[in-house]
Design goal:
Layout lengths: L16 E3 L6 E6 L8 E6 L5 E4 L5 E4 L7 E6 L5 E6 L3 E6 L5 E6 L4 E6 L5 E6 L3 E6 L8 E4 L5 E7 L4 E6 L3 E6 L5 E6 L4 E6 L5 E6 L2 E6 L5 E6 L4 E6 L5 E6 L4 E6 L5 E6 L5 E6 L5 E6 L4 E5 L20 E3 L2 E3 L1
């Protein structure tokens, strides 16, 4: 792997927090919006046990027990009171984040790869290896789901965009499809040259970020046109845009480094080593102070946007205090 010549890499001053607990690759991460003065982080893992953590510190809050297969996606509702997970056990489950109880379990005919929850927490959208999209009404769980034949191959990502009354789906057929929630009719399409490996909505809802092959796309969420595309030197697995839109973080399926880019120019600004396997998922916190990365190595790492700043468990430690320690499953390295 070639070492970039222009970016700054100074691992000695960057001390990520390592969140342990998972036993297999971490494949999806999502921060909640800020609610009641704080925010939360949820993780999906092939070990089948999604976990909820305190966002600023990474401290473990609880594990959602009940899936019988790998969990491919985990997302929180706007108020973080519910979580929705998509699993290889052919179910999408809705959880109470306060008690950890399963509220609803929706059975599918094959592996569910992605699910999302509506802004009001009343409905979910799901998709996976059946190539179908389904909308379930949480308030009427006995009612049959709305269905649409979504894609020509596996659906990897779904998004609920309540501001525009649409849902988005993306997958291995190299397409993002946009659907009207009310009629469940496809109203727009965006095509890429490679299978789409990830798709997320930026924190402010302005951009749809997606990755396909070595390319990062930023689509204008109001018209689904490309605002910016940036080609990297590696296969990109996930990308997250900073809330101020000045930078973004990317992880790669064939790369062990965390990479930070300038949004306007696309120039690589920083790269950091830390994980011992490819990085499958990345996510910025809602305040932009940290970003999380999940890896094939089974760990989640939290990184400061501004290294050295007092925030969460980072308290301007001296070099003497920077030795490895372990607190509630969190390790500073």
């Amino acid at each position: 792997m070639a070492t970039p010549q222009t970016p700054n890499s100074n691992p000695s001053r960057v001390i990520p927090l390592t969140c342990s607990g998972h036993t297999r690759p971490v494949v999806h991460l999502q921060f909640s919006p800020i609610t009641d003065g704080t925010y939360y982080l949820i993780s999906a893992c092939k070990d089948g046990n999604p976990m909820l953590r305190d966002g600023p510190t990474g401290d473990w809050i609880g594990t959602f027990m009940g899936h019988k297969g790998a969990v491919w996606s985990a997302k929180l509702s706007k108020d973080a009171s519910k979580a929705v997970t998509a699993s290889a056990d052919f179910t999408a489950k809705v959880w109470d984040t306060y008690t950890g109880d399963v509220l609803y379990s929706f059975t599918h005919g094959h592996i569910v790869r992605s699910a999302d929850i509506s802004d009001d927490g009343a409905r979910i959208i799901s998709g996976g290896q059946e190539k179908k999209l389904r909308i379930f009404d949480i308030n009427k769980p006995e009612t049959a789901a709305m269905e649409a034949d979504g894609h020509e191959s596996t659906i990897k990502s779904v998004i609920w965009d309540g501001d525009r009354n649409v849902v988005l789906s993306a997958g291995d057929d190299k397409e993002i499809r946009i659907w009207d929630i009310r009629s469940f009719i496809q109203i727009n399409t965006f095509k890429t040259d490679h299978p789409i490996t990830s798709m997320e909505l930026s924190a402010d809802g302005k951009y749809i970020t997606c990755t396909a092959g070595k390319v990062v796309y930023f689509l204008d969420a109001s018209n689904y046109q490309v605002s910016k595309s940036i080609t990297t030197a590696y296969d990109v697995s996930s990308v997250s845009l900073h809330p101020d839109h000045k930078r973004f973080v990317a992880g790669g399926s064939s790369d062990l480094c965390v990479r930070i880019y300038d949004f306007e120019s696309g120039k690589e600004l920083e790269f950091y080593k830390g994980h011992h396997g490819p990085i499958h998922t990345v996510s910025y916190s809602p305040d932009g102070e940290i970003y999380a990365t999940g890896s094939e190595d089974g760990t989640i790492r939290l990184w400061q946007t501004t290294p050295g700043k007092s925030y969460g468990l980072w308290q301007n430690k001296t070099s003497k205090d920077e030795k490895e320690n372990d607190v509630d499953g969190i390790t500073t390295e």
